[in-house]
Amino acid sequence: MRSRFKPWALELIESHPEIVIPQPETVKGKWQEEFDNSNPLHIEAGTGKGRFIVGMAKMNPEINYIGIELFDSVIVTALERVLEEEGGIPNLRLLKVNAKEMASFFEKGEVDRVYLNFSDPWPKTRHAKRRLTHETFLRLYESVLPANGEIHFKTDNRGLFEYSLTSISEYGMLLKDVSLDLHANEPEWNIMTEYEEKFSKKGQPIYRMEAQFQTN
Fold this sequence. Notes:
This protein is α/β, with parallel strands linked by helices. The chain has helices at about 10-15, 30-35, 50-60, 70-85, 135-145, 160-170, 195-200; strands at about 40-45, 65-70, 90-95, 115, 150-155, 175-180, 205-210. Strands 3-2-1-4-5-7-6 form a seven-stranded mixed beta sheet, sandwiched between helices.
C-alpha cells in the first residue's frame, strides 16, 4: 500500500523506537523479552495503515502482534493509531522493513501466526513469484512458524484467491477454513482492513482462508 509522500513521517517514526523497532534483527530470538511475556506472537505482512493489526491487538491483549510495512508514508499512519490510544498498545510493535526479510528478524517457531490481508494480486503470470502466497513465500513463513503454524489470508481478488488455494494445497498445507463471502455471515472477531471496508461497501465478496503447515 502506497500513500501520499509525508516529509514529516520519518522523523515521527524515529522518535518512537519503542513502537517502531529500529533494528529488529537485534531482537531476533528475543521477542518475548521485548514484550516482557511469553504470549503467542502473530505478525501481519504488509500491515498498511494499521487498522487490522491495531484492532487485533486491542481485542486480544493476551497475544503479541507485530505489523510489518516498508513505506514511511504508510506505516506512520499505523504509528499514529497507536499513539492515539491512551497508554499506547503494549502488545503491539511495528517494523519498517520488507516482509521478504522476516527470517532475519524471527527465529524458527518464534512466530505463531502470519496474517496476509489484501496483498497485491500481481495478476500477470510472469509476476506470480511476487504473490505472497507463492511457494517461495510459503517457505519463508514456514521458516519462522512452528511445525503447525498458521497463515490467515483475506482478499477481494478472486483470481488471487484461487491461485492461493492451489499454491497452498500443492505445498502440502491443510486448509482449515475457507470462505467465499466472509461478510455474508461475518464472525464477531473479524477486524476489517481499510481495503476490506472499501470493497465490501461496493458489494464485492471478501474471500478468506486459514491454512496450517503440516508436520512430516
